[in-house]
């Protein structure tokens, strides 16, 4: 069969660092995840291929031995595709011992090369692969925290999303990743969070901002305005002669700090003066009188 170029599959050079390999895998896994392409068999196969490539290149020992195979693949082909007796640099290696090369976790590629005996040979105890899953939550859930429930292998799994998460935050769920080889433990599941935009609030780090109208009379004479927050309504003191576009800072009323329990960002409130409409004749007269009293 044809040689599988795992570097090409992940789109990285052979000189790529572990961090480069991991970064490329994460991006490709997100782009080709079956949840984003329901019913697309081609995307599903591509996703499997990406995971298979990372299974090898993401492990330094597996990668080294894979590179060893790649450098001698043509020699292997000249032997007629029979791995028995092939010199891997450490004497002749028997088929049933080739499990040691990949810790008992063979891809279809290697199973096809080394035959069924290799797949049925002695398996090492290897930890399962970590898995990433994208989840989407509202800004309100990011503020208060949330509990997500989903099904995995027929069982319900509950995951607590802590307050303060932002787009790109990763929440670890221990032991819910790929199965281990032999008696090796399962890998972990990482939920990659995406926070949906909010119709009123904008987020900048842990600070929130919003724009709020106030009436002309409050802006001119001063008073109080009610600000709706995720914690409920707050009273904002408006000083007399407040200009349109002025921003007020409410300290500690923003998003919770993810790694500082009790800490909060700020809430920035930008006010816009609302001009009254449908004035009565008396109101127009009073505004005209006011205009005469104020030099232009």
Give a verbal description of the structure.
By secondary structure, the protein is an alpha+beta fold. The chain folds into three domains: 6-119, Orthogonal Bundle (Helix Hairpins), CATH 1.10.287; 131-195, Urease metallochaperone UreE, N-terminal domain (HSP40/DNAj peptide-binding domain, Sandwich), CATH 2.60.260.20; 202-293, Sandwich (HSP40/DNAj peptide-binding domain), CATH 2.60.260.20. Helix content is 30%, strand content 24%. The chain has ten helices and eleven strands. A four-stranded mixed sheet has the order 6-7-11-10. A three-stranded mixed sheet has the order 1-5-4. A two-stranded antiparallel ribbon has the order 2-3. Helix 2 (18-31) packs antiparallel against helix 3. The longest helix is centred in the first third of the chain and has 17 residues, at 41-57. It is elongated. Mean pLDDT is 80; it is low at 82-106 and 113-124.
């Amino acid at each position: 069969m044809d040689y599988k170029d795992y570097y090409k599959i992940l789109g990285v050079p052979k000189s790529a660092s572990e961090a480069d390999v991991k970064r490329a895998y994460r991006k490709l896994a997100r782009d080709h995840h079956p949840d984003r392409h329901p019913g697309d068999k081609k995307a599903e196969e591509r996703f499997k291929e990406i995971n298979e490539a990372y299974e090898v290149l993401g492990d330094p020992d597996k990668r080294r031995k894979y590179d060893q195979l790649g450098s001698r693949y043509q020699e292997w082909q000249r032997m007629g595709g029979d791995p028995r007796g092939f010199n891997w640099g450490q004497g002749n290696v028997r088929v049933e011992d080739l499990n040691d090369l990949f810790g008992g976790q063979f891809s279809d590629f290697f199973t096809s090369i080394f035959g069924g005996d290799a797949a049925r040979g002695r398996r090492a105890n290897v930890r399962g692969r970590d898995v990433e899953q994208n989840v989407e939550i509202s800004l309100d859930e990011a503020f208060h925290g949330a509990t997500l429930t989903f099904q995995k292998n027929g069982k319900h799994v509950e995951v607590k999303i802590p307050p303060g998460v932002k787009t790109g935050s990763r929440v670890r769920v221990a032991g819910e990743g790929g199965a281990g080889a032999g008696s090796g433990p399962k890998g972990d599941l990482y939920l990659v969070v995406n926070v949906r935009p909010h119709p009123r609030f904008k987020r900048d780090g842990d600070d929130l901002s919003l724009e709020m109208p106030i009436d002309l009379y409050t802006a001119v004479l001063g008073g109080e305005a009610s600000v709706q927050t995720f914690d409920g309504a707050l009273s904002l003191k408006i000083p007399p002669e407040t200009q349109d576009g002025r921003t007020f800072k409410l300290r500690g009323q923003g998003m919770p700090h993810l790694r500082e329990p009790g800490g909060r960002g700020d809430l920035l409130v930008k006010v816009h003066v609302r001009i009254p409409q449908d004035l009565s004749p008396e109101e127009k007269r009073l505004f005209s009188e006011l205009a005469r009293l104020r030099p232009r």
